[in-house]
Amino acid sequence: MELERIALPPRGPLELPLALLELGCAGRFEVLPGPPGAGGAPPSRATLPRGLPPFAPPPVLELERRFLGSPEWLPPHQHEWARRMWQRTPEPRALFALEPTPVSGGLRAERDPHSGALRGFTEELLPDVGLSAKNSLSLRRPPGPPGQSLRGSATNFPFWPGGLDEPSLEQIRAQEEEEEDVDFESNLLTTPPGLKRGVDYDPPVAVPGGPLSLSSLLGTLDAFTLGGDDTGGGPGDPKKTTGGGSSPPPPLRRADSLEELLREEVVEPPPAPPAAPPEPPEESWAVPVDASAPVEDFERLVPDPAFKWPFAPDPFQQRAVLCLEGGHSLLVAAHTSAGKTAVAEYAIALARRHMTRTIYTSPIKALSNQKFRDFKATFGDVGLLTGDVQLRPEASCLIMTTEILRSMLYNGSDVIRDLEWVIFDEVHYINDAERGVVWEEVLIMLPEHVKLILLSATVPNALEFAQWVGRTKRRRLRVISTRQRPVPLEHFLYTGNSPRTRHQLFLLLDARGNFSTQGYYAAVEAKKERTSKHAQTFGAKQPTMGGSGPGQDRGVWLALLGVLRERGQLPVVAFTFSRNRCDEHADALGSLDLVSSAEKGRIRIFFQRCIARLRGSDRRLPQVLRLAELLQRGIGVHHSGVLPLLKEVVEMLFSQGLVKVLFATETFAMGVNMPARTVVFDSIRKHDGNNFRDLLPGEYVQMSGRAGRRGLDSTGTVIILCKGPVPEMADLHRMMLGRPTRLQSQFRLTYSMILNLLRARALRVEDMMRRSFSEFPLRRDAPAQERRAAELRQALAALGEPEAGGAMADLPPYHRAVQGLRRARGLLQRRLAESVSGLRALAPGRVVVVCTPKHRNALGLILQVSPEGPPRTFTTLVLCEKPPEEGGPPPAPPDAPDAPDAPYPEDLLLTRLFLPEGPCGHALEKLQPGDIAGVTAKTLRVNPEKLLQELRPRPRAAPPGAEVGAAVQELSRLAATATRGGSGGVGGSPGGLPLLDPVGTLQLRDPETVEAAATARTLAASLGSFRCVHSPRFPQQYAQFAARQELLEQLEHLQFLLSDRSLLLLPEYHQRVAVLRALGYVSAGGAVALGGRLASLLSCHELVLTELLLGNVLAPLRPEESVALLSCMGMERVRAVAQRVGQLQQDCGLSQSVEEFVEQFGFGLVEVVYEWARGMPFADIARLAAVQEGAVVRCIQRLEETCREVRQAARLVGEPALAAKMEAASNMIKRDIVFAASLYTQ
After folding, report:
1. Which of 393, 401, 394, 339 has the alpha carbon at shortest distance from 370?
2. Cα separation of 438 and 362, whole Å?
3. How big is the CA angle at 605 (ends 604 and 610), to the nearest 5 degrees?
4. Is residue 1046 predicted with pLDDT exceeding 70?
5. pLDDT band at 543, cuts 50/70/90?
């Protein structure tokens, strides 16, 4: 069959097996044959992506960025076309996006140690997982952002303080007592809030006859008790089984009478409370180092020192170097200008060698600037960190004030990680009442790896202070103390400008420390001669040299400076304890010129170069012109009223030897080492803020230590001006040779400290208080107290529980009544011995009842009363048994057990007095007020002097005197009569010997005595209602119970001393926390709220400033008004807030009154700060202010710090407008001479 050929239509151009290849983007194509595709033709291909290259952004993105990001591009007249919302694709699962949980474990490969072959893997827990600065105090947490590495952040946790133990489980439970107590075992909710039904967690009830469940079988097994279990109950206990080997009951003992049974049952007397064992020596954290002799083989011990001085180090410096090379912390106590800075220099160099960092802290900002210049010239790699200046923060040595370091510690700065040494200069500044707490906070908060160098002036308790630091940080401190001066001092008196005494300096204390009374009396005679001549010339009623006027002061100073200039003893530092007197003395020397023409040129060039940075009006300030004129004559002034820039000019010129006479206040003594040839004291009296007083030995030593230049002077000269009368010799001796002021704690609680510690829940304010220097004397015996508490617990366990049933059921209340009665009577006897009427009643001849360990309710006759007290002693003739060698009863056998001494009611009521069993004896005792149990109304007519003479030691065979025998027989008769007289009166009056009533008879009416007398009467009346005293076992049981109670009281006292309840500042802490809770800064559970976080950022007036911020008081004010408000803190609205906070503090129990709290906010510089913020020149500000220029500068500088803190707080609370306003206010006041850069940093 022939196939037919089917004619197909020709293919179209799209059906041909051809493909187009696009070459590049220029529109060139090639035709390629290929197999047909799904559509009949091969797919087209290209060498590049299709479309034009992306030479411009897409138009959609451009429109979104242009119109949506910049609304001003939208057409203002066609706003209805603007879109109000944009559609987006909902993504519900995005709500559940969580950060991945850190992996808490990992796999560790185990390999063969020889071949390295893999044996397997072991799972192990990874430490420090999920740690950050927001939740951990560990040094192993990762570092924070770079911007927070230097100063940290207010939201960071501090690092764990060194020496502070991790909190125990008991402490954690005690800390969580304030939180809600949730019972996870019962009363749990089964229905969620808002739902009608919940989940029934009760187990199903088994149906009788149904299948048994495993839980019911296990419950049945738990009900069985195996035989032989000694813990079963009594006969009535259903769990007690009768078979299975239970031990039979002990057989009953038979006796004919109860007394026989009691005699057979011998009751051992209770053991006495264990005596405290000898305490081991106290743990020593301070190691004194002898620095009296140089180290012989110093070069061999330190062959490659980290730092070399241009001079041979002193012995104490050599010892310090050895301690630093050994990695020890140390305390160096030495005189001013002795060379303590050399120790700091070596520590800085050692840290550079170890590639670690050092922080050098100083008490004042000016000293930080000076140290920055000195250390920068020595090491180069030095940074400075103050409130408004931050230079080279990455340097290996950072210099800052102690307040800056405290802020870094609380904010968790990462600089602390690399820290090896912290150097505390002038650490004796811890005695400062206002700022001393900062040193204690920093020392407590420093981490464990940081080593300490404490530089201090000579203090008498350096070892005690080092012991506290070492115990707090759990690190031994080496203590190097030296009283040797590199330049010895000679102290003189200068009496005036008379022709005879003008050139005389009266030696008072030589270079070897010998006080010269001859020089003192010579000065007194010269002063008297001058005074008498003055009176003869001007008359007796004219003012004498006892008082000094401006003219006389000028004459004395001109005469003294002339003498010193002739002797070559310039330059001079004249310490004057008044800023106004400094200026007056300098102005009074108008005709005195102490510098040469060449020195004048150097002074002028240096001064012009220093003030060239100031604006024109600031260069013409009255203080600038006046100081320039004084410096041209070699005279300088240095006190807090001088502008900071001018003070630095004076310091630099003085260090160059161009200032010959410097009138300064005592703040100059705290600066860097700027010694002079001579130091002059204008007076030895100063005003300390409260009243006038003489200089303390430590203050005198600090200032006089500026005399004597090392390497230039063989001795330094110290002169005391006697413009008035010569001071008393005792005052001078005490000031020059007395003991310096001890280092004393100034620790106090502040709201900032409390809030910063509450932020980190692991740190407790109680731990900070416990480790303060104020608590150290009370806590140094804590290890011994803990050992003693453990011993008492063991003794209590060995003593056993006393009988508490039957006739002994009321033994505990009887013991409490006995102890209360004894305490009340003891108080009454002490009040008697302290009162006039009581001493009149306790005169010789009075019969008293004596109760001591040797005498129990024995009558005594007072023969003599000590004239002085307290406590007074009463020499008393006491009735007792006659000794065996004088015919008395034989003593008990040594192995016979002592009968327990139990107080019966008749003994306590003094109705049963002591009567000798044989012949009456007597003893002469010296009694304390507490040894007298009662004062009877009976007196005997005796001759006390004759009795005392007859009672003197005599031979054994000699009989007692007639007076003694008669007195003893009368006491015995009174005791027998009182005992036969019956029960006597209630309250302690024997039947025949009534007692004197302290309140009614002796008229002691103070509340404490009246209350004690009422308590004694009540307790004495209740003694007859107790049944335990009628039991034959009462003496043994009472002795055992009393011994146990004594141990319990001792243990409770030790536990109190070891607990937080004994902290001195604990009541104030609770009061301040109550204030914070009332303001809403701290929650009931202890969490810090937003207000508390704001207050923790502020360094002063935390509560008032926080209330102003939260009350939005600063929002409607302009920047200049805001800064004026912050400066005065005394406007009406601020005063209202301060009154509210002060009243709240008083309601919570704080001692500060509302008036005292409000008075700290003053109006002083409101107008000055307001005009300064508006741009007024400083020359006009100086005329406007009522204080000196330096005080205005300090106020504005502190105000700028407050603005920065408020700006940071505003950012935290989410107020960008307020933050911008504070920044603008800060920029307004931060200008011109007030914020001129320090010359030391240039």
Report:
1. 401
2. 12
3. 100
4. yes
5. very low
Question: Residue 277 and residue 564: Cα distance in Å, rounded?
Answer: 66
Q: Is the pLDDT at 1054 greater than 70, yes or no?
A: yes
Q: Which residues of 1093-1125 are buried (b: 16+ CB within 10 A; e: fewer)?
A: bbbbbbbebbbbbbbbbbeebbeeeebbbbbbb
* Cβ atoms of residues 285 and 478 within 8 Å: no
Cα–Cα distance measured from residue 327 to residue 286, given in angstroms and rounded to the nearest whole number: 15
Q: In the 3-class helix/strand/coil scheme, how is 1198-1240 assigned residue by residue?
A: HHHHHHHHHHHHHHHHCCHHHHHHHHHHHHHHCCHHHHCCCHH
C-alpha 755/C-alpha 763 separation (Å) is 11
Specify the length of the chain in residues: 1242
| Section 538-544 average pLDDT | 41
Element (H, E) at 585: helix 579-588
The reported pLDDT for the residue numbered 540 is: 42
User: Does the pLDDT value for residue 994 go beyond 50?
Assistant: yes
* pLDDT single digits (tens) 93-106: 777 777 677 777 78
Secondary structure element (H or E) that encloses residue 62, with its range = helix 59-63
CA nearest neighbour of 531 among 492, 561, 563, 501: 501
Q: For the residues 1114-1134, what does the mean pLDDT come to?
A: 74
Instruction: Tell me the whole-structure pTM to 2 decimals.
Output: 0.76
What end-to-end distance do the CA atoms of the chain give, in Å?
117
Concatenate the DSSP letters of all residues of 147-205 into one string.
GGTTT--TTSPPPPPTTPPPPPHHHHHHHGGGS----SSSS---S-TT-S-----SPPP
**3-class DSSP assignment, residue 433:** coil
DSSP 897: P
Cα separation, 340 vs 457, in Å, equals: 9
988 close to 1016: Cβ distance less than 8 angstroms: yes
Q: What are the start-end ranges of the H helices in 835-891?
A: 836-841
Beta-ladder partners of 881: 920
Closest C-alpha among 408, 411, 450 to residue 133: 411
Three-class SS state of 708: coil
> Which tokens go with 539?
């008359």
Tokens 């004219």 -> residue? 542
Q: 1019-1051 burial, b if ≥16 CB within 10 A, otherwise e? A: bbebbeebebbebebbbbbbbbbbbbeebeebb
Closest CA to 637 of 586, 593, 697, 683: 586
Report the amino acid identity of residue 335.
Answer: H
The larger pLDDT score, comparing residue 1024 to residue 186, is at 1024
Tokens of 149: 């590495």
The whole-number pLDDT of residue 218 equals 45
Cα–Cα distances in angstroms (integers) from residue 537 to residues 266, 542, 843, in the given order: 103, 9, 65
Q: What is the full DSSP assignment across 209-278?
A: TSPPPHHHHHHHHHT---TT-TT---TT-TT--S-SSPPPPPPPP--SSHHHHHHHSPPPPPPPPPPPPP
Nearest one of 328, 348, 330, 332 to 340, comparing CA atoms: 332
Query: Is the pLDDT reported for residue 973 higher than 80?
Result: yes
Provide mean pLDDT across the span 336-363.
Answer: 92
- Per-residue exposure over 278-303, b if at least 16 CB sit within 10 Å of its own CB, e if not: eeeeeeebbbebebeeebeebeeebe
For 320-342, how does the pLDDT look when each residue is reduced to its tens digit (9 = 90+)?
999 999 999 999 998 877 888 99
CB 495 within 8 Å of CB 380 = no
Strands (E) across 711-850 are located at 716-721, 846-850
Distances (CA, A) of 224 to 217, 232, 410: 12, 12, 60
Distances (CA, A) of 1138 to 421, 731, 1108, 1143, 1166: 42, 44, 10, 8, 17
For residues 1103 and 1173, the answer to whether their CB atoms sit within 8 Å is no
Task: Tokens for 274, please give them.
Answer: 């264990």
pLDDT at res. 919: 80
Written as one string, the DSSP assignment of 1011-1047 is HHHHHHHHHHHHGGG-SGGGSTTHHHHHHHHHHHHHH
